Structure formats: structure tokens, C-alpha cells
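Can't attach files on this board, so I'm pasting raw text. These are the components:
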Amino acid sequence: AQSVTQLDSQVPVFEEAPVELRCNYSSSVSVYLFWYVQYPNQGLQLLLKYLSGSTLVKGINGFEAEFNKSQTSFHLRKPSVHISDTAEYFCAVSDTGGSNYKLTFGKGTLLTVNP
Amino acid sequence: GAGVSQSPRYKVAKRGQDVALRCDPISGHVSLFWYQQALGQGPEFLTYFQNEAQLDKSGLPSDRFFAERPEGSVSTLKIQRTQQEDSAVYLCASSTRSYGYTFGSGTRLTVV
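---
Top answer:
C-alpha cells for the assembled complex are below.
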């Protein structure tokens, strides 16, 4: 079984500032890692995923994340945020075996971008 | 359609009432998933279909919850004798592969 901890429930930042949303996971097996974004009253949209290969993953809307196996982390970063990035962000993990369809999510981080 | 469609968007049910939530996946998507998202929480896995076969229902919280996908396309999540703890957003997702789903906008169920 896996678990995900998102260390910050809320992150307020000013427009054009950089941001990092932290995610740590726990698993006894190899994992796939994901970041999803959820805008108000909408479903989740995939930002990026790590399956294998390069540990630096680039996603949509200028976001990127780095997989650190030794620290069991997958932090999400953006160098300069916009007002439109205000949303809830969820980190998720699945195993790489027969249950790789089943995502385990963290509790989410609410990113609020202020003018 | 272009995306995953869920209906109704909002449902208010009296405690003890049965409800049925519908999901129309993206055409051709073999895999379909249901997740439950309680207020202030991340989504939690309920069940997984591959075509019409329900391959995993380990996340269904009780025998009051039942899901079906009889023709391998539209799916229905049914909750019998609803309880207040069933209040949540129910998310459906579909995929051509096991990862990188497309989620619908969800059905917000409120049990009063």
C-alpha cells in the first residue's frame, strides 16, 4: 500500500513569484507519480506524471516536478505564477505492477495567487 | 463526446433514499474508474472497470454501494439507503491505459 503526504494545506503567493508545492510518498514497491490540478467545481486535470527515465518532469502550464527516490519526494514547482494558477493541487501515486490503475491521492494543497 | 460527462451535477437526497449517478466516458476508452472525494480530502478509489468487467471493487465502502457498466460504455454508481457520511463528490474517470486518466466534473451528493 502507498500513502501520500502533502506538507502544506494552503500556499499563498504573489503573482509572478516562484512556488513549490511539496509532496512526499511512502511505498514498499516502485511507484508512478502524478500531479493533478482541480479548479473550483471541476474535475481533476493531469499536470504531469513520472513513469520512468529522467527524474525532472515537465508538464502543462509551465509546471515541473522532480522525482527524488532517496527522499521519496515529488515536489511541484513553477518559476513564475499567474492569478489563473489559483486552484487545488493533488499529488498522487500508484504502484507499477498489476494495480497501477489505482491512484492514492494526498489531501491537496490550495494554491492562492494574489495580485 | 470530448470529455467525461457526469450527471446529475448536484444531487440532494434524504437519508435512506436510493440514488443513481451516471458517467459517460470518452468514446473508446476501455478503462473506467469511480472515486469518492469528501470535503477537504483527496479523491479515494472506489472501483475499476475494464470494458464491462468490474475488475476491482475493493474501495466500495459498504454493500450499499454498487456500480455497473453493462455494455462497456456508460456506467452507473448506485447508493442504496443513503447515509450522511455518503455526502461527497463522486468523480468518474476514463482512460485508454491504466494511468493518466481524464476525470469528469463530478456529482456532488448531499444527504440531508
